[in-house]
Specification:
six-stranded mixed beta sheet; 281 residues; 27% helix; 6 helices; alpha/beta; Nucleotide-diphossugar_trans; globular; Spore Coat Polysaccharide Biosynthesis Protein SpsA, Chain A; three-stranded mixed beta sheet
Amino acid sequence: MSEEGYLLLATGPDHYVEMARNLAASIRVMDGTRRICLVHDENFTPHPEDRKLFDDFSVLEDDPLYPGFMNKIRLFGTSPYQRAMFVDVDCLLMKRDIDTYWEMTRPYPFAITGGRRTSGEWKGADIAKLLRQEGAPYLVQMNSGVFVFDKSPAAARFFEGLNDYYLRRREHLGIGLHRGKPAQTDEIYIGLWMGLNGLDSCGGRIDEGSWMVSTWRAFGMRFNPRRGSSVLRKPKRSIAGIPNPLGGWDRISPSFVHFIGLKPNRHYSRLSRYFREACGA
């Protein structure tokens, strides 16, 4: 079993595999030292060209109880690595500093950035009400686009318990919003399970740490893969969920850029072409 590697999950429609290829190409260019595993469903057959991008392949069997994002919490058994970094396939690795985050997460059997929350709103849910309902002292609010886990007994217990919790509570917690519509969201379950077990994140600001940042409501984006530079800006404050530029801006330099909805497409398409050409794929 290899020591460290990336897990890229691409099940369902073919375009997820194509996004995974783009992400793998960016990892090849920015981190040429670690292996990359494509986790796919039973309907996918690797092309010969895929061997240039992926070192390993792992099958995740279809299960109707796990729609969409919920497949993330089934990844423990698919990993061929002692330590795996899961990355959403709509991300691209833009900087060569990823060793920093491998090292930062080393003490944790499961590592994700975020912060404790006991009030407010998240994913369309009232947090305080949700905590009372579930008997949790807090939840960890995070973006699950990137996280790390190892193959330790502690990590195995974490995922086993998380899956059991999901299956027991799925009819009561399918309250998240995805693009404005009710949907099952893995983040609600992960956040609550961490709170129920007294677990904390590995630090970093919610969604805006330099490990991974989304393009949602971002401005002034400048990405130069040749230099390994990455910059975007987000408003410091919002009113009723609407960004308020009068409160100033955060200048952020993310390693992984999370292109929500593959937008802005002009950046995503240009960068994907660059990475694919750079690694001959």
